[in-house]
Amino acid sequence: MIRNSAVPFDPVYVSSQTCTSSYYQNHFSHHYTEADLELDSRPPVLNDLQRVKHQHKASMNKKYESLFEGINLQENQTLLNRIYTQLYIIEGESEGVNEEHEVLQMEKCYKTLQDTPINCNDIFNPLYEPGYEEMRREKKDKIKTVLTKGIAGIGKTVSVQKFILDWAEGKANQDVDFIFVLPFRELNLIKDHQYSLHRLLLDFHPELQDMDSKIYSECKVVFIFDGLDESRITLMFSDSQKVSDVTEISSVGLLMSNLIKGDLLPSALIWITTRPAAANQIPSNYINRVTEIQGFNDPQKEEYFRKRIHDEHQASRVISHIRRARSLHIMCHIPVFCWISATVLQNILKQDLSAEIPQTLTEMYIYFLLIQTNMRNQKYEERNPKKLLQSSREVIVKLAELAFNQLMKGNVMFYEEDLRESGIDVLNASVYSGICTEIFREESVIYHRKVYSFVHLSFQEFFAALYVFYCYLHKNSEILKMFLTGKSKTQFENVTLDVFLRGAMNKAVKSKNGHLDLFLRFLHGISLVSNQTLLQDVLIHTQNNPESIKKVIQNLKRGQKNNVSPERWMNLSHCLIEMKDNSVVEKMQVFLTSGKKEKNLTLAQCSTLANMILMSEEVLDELDLTKYKIKSSKEGRLRLLPAVGNCRKAVFPNCNLSDQHCEIVASALQSSNSSLRELDLSNNDLGVSGVKLLCVGMKSPNCQLNILRLVGCNLSDQHCKLMASVLLSSNSSLRELDLSNNDLEVSGVEQLCAGLKSSNCQLNILRLVGCNLSDQHCKLMASVLLSSNSSLRELDLSHNDLEVSGVEQLCAGLKSSNCQLNTLRLSGCLVTEEGCAALASALSLNPSHLRELDLSYNHPGESGIKLLSETLKHLDKLNVDHGGEFRIRAGLHKYACDLTLDPNTANKHLILSDDNRKVTSVVRETQPA
Q1: 114 in the Ramachandran plot: left (φ > 0), alpha (ψ -120 to 50) or beta?
Q2: Residues 439-454: what's their mean pLDDT?
Q3: Which CATH number is 86-295's, of 3.30.420, 3.10.450, 3.40.50, 2.60.40?
Q4: Taking 80 as the threshold, does the pLDDT of residue 261 lie above it?
Q5: In contact, 233 and 188? CB cutoff 8 Å
Q6: Distance (Å, rounded) from C-alpha 900 to C-alpha 892?
Q7: Where does the NACHT domain lie (predicted)?
Q8: Where are the domains positioned within the chain?
Q9: Which residues, listed in sequence order, are joined to residue 736 by a DSSP beta bridge?
Q10: In the beta sheet, which residues pair with residue 91?
Q11: pTM over 0.70
């Protein structure tokens, strides 16, 4: 029975571009009674079309309106619209397949965000950017097939679910008639069967039984292939059999391939989701748009926790803890890890507000396992504790064995036959949907078979580590021998913990893509006595040997000294953190603060170092790239850029930064735990888009930046306008701004001054050294000093040819009682005696603030110096060094000087000539004796 209120839609609307009434008069089947038809006076064919669409939308609405988290119980059912949090989906072509472990990919680049993400409902719509739509139109290119990439648990399936639900509820994409969802995990079950596309769709969507097979080409339809990485179907794109009719029978692989190629239903839109490693299964020429889901940014994490946890105080405690534990905070960019964290922390805080909260990944996953086990026990109301313990242990150990076996095979999806191989009773396994995810579609006629996976790829690796440690304690020879070598392989019964873990470490570091990295982290974390104690009901007995643990830590540190790749070196550091040994972080701090110039960093080491800084619980005081030797210096410095997310001061001069890199910095500024106080991006041509991104970051309420240096960044009036918007912002925290060595036009400085006069502006220090300023610029700066809102305490206009007219304009502001300047620098500004007189007069009218005046490299003359000294006796420092008449020259000529040679100190091998403008070095050869 279809609920009439389930799906709002307009029953009158029929798009002329989708389904035509003439078509339905010929091809649509009628299965409704006269009573049904009398409900509406419209033509029966339209009633039939709308009823089927209504049935389909109602079915999809019911299927996708809820989200089950953990065990598939009624109390775990959550309305998607209540908990859904917008994910970052960005557009970008794939740069090849990254085979590195997904968690490591995420840890390295988790700060990278795009300022304008794509909403999941706009996945087939072009970006609204200047020239973008025109470019597609010129190419006669439409977005037909979209490939969306994202690591495990990042939100690909939930994004698909939201797309479908908003369509079914009439909120978006109402020009689409039908959406057909074909998950690869379910298609795997029929990969060896023969189907026509029409028959396949009827099996997946039984509500379409009344539809004629020719409807597809006349309607606007969307196919969603979810989980390409889970596919066990061979897709064929070269020299494959062509299928162009929806009634033609072929293999499932051929049907999928022809749909993607466009030979079958060429007008259909197609959305494919996949993990990054499987993206290359489809040739790029069949893809019109590649997108990537980057998960939650920091505000979205907080939004998720506040939606997920109804108790506001409890939600705040959870958010606060996640922010403090940096490794957990980074992992929470993955939505499924947010769910794991919320489940664990909420459960702990409910029981004991003063309880110790998990600090490491291993602890978090152990608590999650214990909570899920307890939920299972509650469901089945087991009364006998011994029986309960035994049954739980057996299932967990068997699931752990499954995890290990499939991890070694590279599988993340399992079917009933896979479970049986590990001795798992399928009925028992289905109880554990919080531990082993089960997807069961009751409306499907495809044998009612089931598909399993762990909550997340990382949870499979945790279970695999749990199984291997269990095997160590119980001396399982088959498993132990996989990790041992030499004598220990034959004497496994007596092997110590440190020897066993050293074998596991040696096996893991040999991996090029790090597929055992997270497994190794968990294995070391589980070895801690405190974690063994938590797992004692599963492990049965534990091993407490402090000496062995010391040796394990020593082995990890020795392993770092060996010739291992920087990525594996980094993972050994994570293993130490899981064992709660923080010495590696302390060493990193010492290295960074020592500034050892003999340390020549490779590109890989730069990436590793950036990751170390990001993962550290301690905020780095300063990251100054000018202090270190870096091979391929520009590229190396760019690799270190993400580290700005966890340091107080960052100096990145002359690094060839682009707007893409500005995104990373902007993200750090917007982070809820932003630490950056000082930023130097001098001598980088950032472009308008780059500065725009930075300014968005600086206007964030989370931004704590006090000092910004953009010296020599080729800034224009557009950049000045953007900077002014920061000064105008109520969130601005800037206290010092250096825009020196930029050729600033009058219009640009005018924009800047508008910000400086704002009541929101807190700027104390402004440097515009060498900016080609004139008297017009000075007039604008004077208006700032005249303003009652001005907070400037130090102004540096040195090395600008201001001349007398410019100085006089500036004096109009200096004499104002609103002027609060303590320091004024006008070095090399063509200031003469006349200019000094103007300064003396102005400053004598407002003598209470200025303490330092720099007039070096000018020509004040004796009278000018005398006038300033007598008039401005309150000055602490008056600098008139390096003066003289020859300083009154434009540009760099003022710094030219004549060479002289002191005969008493001169090198005997130097000779001056050409009016002392030429120096020649003479080497006298020794005459033979």
Answers
A1: beta
A2: 52
A3: 3.40.50
A4: yes
A5: yes
A6: 20
A7: 144-278
A8: 86-295, 360-561
A9: 707, 765
A10: 291
A11: no
